[in-house]
Amino acid sequence: MIPYGRQSIDEADIAAVVDVLKSDWLTTGPMVERFEAAVAAYVGTAQAVAVSSGTAALHAMMAALEIGPGDEVIVPALTFAATANCVVYQGGVPVFADVDPDTLLISPESVERCLSPRTRAVIAVDYAGQPCDYAALQSLADRHSIRLLADGCHSLGAHFGTQASGSIALMTAFSFHPVKPITTGEGGMVTTDDERLAAFMRTFRNHGITTDARQREQAGTWYYEMRTPGFNYRISDIQCALGIEQLKKLDGWIDRRSSIAAIYDRAFADHDHVIPVGRQPGSRHAWHLYVVRLPGGIRRRVYEQMRTDGIGVNVHYIPVHLHPFYRQRFGTGPGLCPAAEAAYEDILSLPVHPGLTDDQVQTVIDRLLEAVQPARRAA
Q1: pLDDT score for 217
Q2: Cβ count within 10 A of residue 365
Q3: N- to C-terminal Cα separation, the chain
C-alpha cells in the first residue's frame, strides 16, 4: 500500500531519542523547552507551548481565552472534528461557517454571516496546508472585536505572503502526528506572542499546577499550587528530542512535497474529471494533503478501486456539522454549509509525503486515471 501520508525517520532522529532515553529526564525535562524555542524561532513568535497533541493545543487555546457556556466560536465545516470539539470541551457553542468552493478554506463572507453578539472568536483552518485569507479574516475580527485563532495542524512551514504560519493569528495550534509536516509520534504546540496566554497554557497542560517536577527540583522545593483545573497535556522529552531533529529537515521536506504536487498538477491540468483544489496566489503551501475533486458521483467507486490497487487514498473530511453528535446536540444538518457538503461528495486525498518516489507518484496518477473512466461509465 502506498499511504497518503507517512512519517520520515532517519538515524539522527533515532540517535536523539536514544540520547534522551539514556538521560535523567524522560518528561518535563530540558528537551521540552528546547523544542518550544526551536518552533518559536522557526515561525517567528515570542512564545511556543508544547502539548501532547494538536487537539490538546486547540483545547488549550480555548481555555486560555476563557471560552465558556454560551460563548460562540466560529469554525469551518470542512475540518477534522477536533477543531469544533475543543469549543465543546469548554461548554461553548461551535458555529459552522462554510468554505470557499474553490480553495475549501473558511469563507470570510460566511464567517461574517455567522456572527452574533455571543461570538468570541473564529478558528481559521489551513486546510491541506494552505493558509487562509488572514488579511480578510483579521480585518473582520478587528471590526467586530473578536479573536482570530488558527488551526495550523496542516500548515507548519507554510506562509501567507511573507508571514509564517504560526505567527499570524493571536494563537496557532500545530499537530505533530506521524502524517503531519513533522512528527513527535503524538504531540502539538501553540505559538503566540502573548506571554500571558502562554503562561496560562503551560499551567493548563500540567493539571493547572504552577510548577512542574523539574522546576521544583531546580528550586529545591516540594511545594506547588493548583490554581485552576487543568489537564495532563504534557509532552515527553523523548517526543521533543524527535521534534527538534525533525524540524531541521522541514523545509527540505516541504520542497519535496511541492515537487510531488507539481507532478500531480501537470498530470491533471487538462483533465475535466480530476480537478485539483484551488490555490490562493502569494502563499507558500505546506502540502500536508493533495486533494482533488472527482465530480459526477464517482468518488466512492474511484476510492474503492484505488484501495484495491494498493493506493492509500483518503477523504478529508466529513463536514463536522453532519456528524451525529453535532446533529443531536446542536441541531445541525444538511443544507447548513452547502459548499462544504458539495465538496465532501467529490474530494479525494492522494498520497503526498517526502518518502514517495517519482515512480510511485506516477503509479498513483496512472491508477487514478484508469479508475476514473469505468467509474464514470457506471455512474
Answers
A1: 80
A2: 17
A3: 26
Q: How far apart, in whole angstroms, are the C-alpha atoms of residue 44 and residue 57?
A: 18
Q: Pick the catalytic residue: 22, 180, 248, 249?
A: 180
Instruction: Give the three-class secondary structure for 171.
Output: strand
Q: Is the dihedral of CA 172, 177, 180, 183 positive or negative?
A: positive
Q: Identify any residues that bridge with 74 across adjacent strands, giving them in sequence order.
A: 95, 122
**Which of 302, 265, 267, 319 shows the shortest CA–CA distance to 287?**
265
Under DSSP, the state recorded for 127 is: G
Q: Does residue 180 carry a catalytic annotation?
A: yes
The mean pLDDT value of the chain amounts to 96
Q: Is the pLDDT of residue 28 over 80?
A: yes
In contact, 322 and 341? CB cutoff 8 Å? yes
Output the CA angle 347-76-200, nearest 5 degrees.
130
**pLDDT band at 197; cut points 50, 70, 90:** very high
- Report how far apart, in Å, the C-alpha atoms of 48 and of each of 172, 199, 203 are: 9, 10, 13
Residue 18 has a pLDDT of 98
Which tens digit of pLDDT belongs to each residue from 221-273? 878 888 889 999 999 999 999 999 999 999 999 999 999 999 999 999 989 99
Vertex 340: Cα angle to 337 and 344 (nearest 5):
135
Q: pTM of the full predicted structure? A: 0.96
Distance, CA of 138 to CA of 150 (rounded, Å): 11
Cα distances from 267 to residues 138, 178, 272, 281, in angstroms, run 36, 28, 12, 21
Which domains are present in the chain?
A: 2-248 (3.40.640.10), 250-378 (3.90.1150.10)
Helix or strand or coil: residue 281?
coil
> Is residue 364 pLDDT above 90, yes or no?
yes
Type of residue found at 200: F
pLDDT at 160 (0 to 100): 97
Q: Is the dihedral of CA 231, 235, 36, 33 positive or negative?
A: positive
- CA-CA distance, 55 to 156, in Å (whole number)? 15
Read off the pLDDT of residues 55-85 as tens digits, 9 standing for 90 and up.
Answer: 999 999 999 999 999 999 999 999 999 999 9
